Amino acid sequence: MIKKILIIGGSGFLGSNLGAYLAEHDYKVYSFDLEYPPEKMEGMDCIVHAVSTINPGNSNQMYIYGYEKDFLQTVKLCNLLLGKK
Predict the structure, then answer these.
(1) Of 17 and 13, which is predicted with more confidence?
(2) Are 31 and 37 in contact (CB under 8 A)?
(3) Residue 2 CB burial class (10 angstroms; 0-12, 13-18, ≥19)
(4) Which 8-state DSSP code applies to residue 53?
(5) Higher pLDDT, 66 or 59
(6) pTM for this predicted structure
(7) What are phi and psi of 61, to 5 degrees?
């Protein structure tokens, strides 16, 4: 059963609300955003990606920027986690 959840982008709108909801339902929630969390992040059961550099107010005009910054960086992160370069 999933108990330890890391939310990347946990300080944003989606991440913070999801984190609050999960914490209310007895999950141990870790948030990684612009700063490292105070506790060491080991043995996560689940990682949630909630990073976004665009917001609803500019999403129609900035979607390519969001793709370049958010999606491609996420692919790089996943490759690092899998041991690929």
Answers:
(1) 17
(2) yes
(3) exposed
(4) S
(5) 66
(6) 0.72
(7) -85, -25
The one-letter code for the residue type at 76 is K
How large is the average pLDDT for residues 29-51? 83
Selected residue with higher pLDDT from 63 and 17: 17
Taking the C-alpha atoms of residue 53 and residue 80, their distance in angstroms, rounded to an integer, is 21
- Mean pLDDT, the chain, rounded, equals 82
Residue-wise burial string across 18-45, b where 16 or more C-beta atoms lie within 10 A, e elsewhere: bbeebeeeebebbbbbeeeeeeeeeeee
CA distances from 39 to 1, 13, 19, 29, 35 (A): 22, 22, 16, 11, 12
Q: Are 9 and 15 in contact (CB under 8 A)?
A: yes
Half-sphere exposure of 9 (CA within 13 A, CB side): 17
